[in-house]
Amino acid sequence: MRTSTARERAYHKWPTSKTWIVDLIKAPMKARMATWVTGSARWIKKFCSQDSN
Known about the structure:
The chain is mostly helical. About 55% of the residues lie in helices and about 0% in strands. The model has no long low-confidence stretch (mean pLDDT about 75).
């Protein structure tokens, strides 16, 4: 599985998890550099259409 595909899958799947990863996805850390959460959100908004879910 490609990295971008795995990231997108995790970004959509993990918010229903009962672990600390949910907190990171709902409220990403403020950092100078992009994290996989903020980068994934930006990438999905830019390249994915709404009807592809």
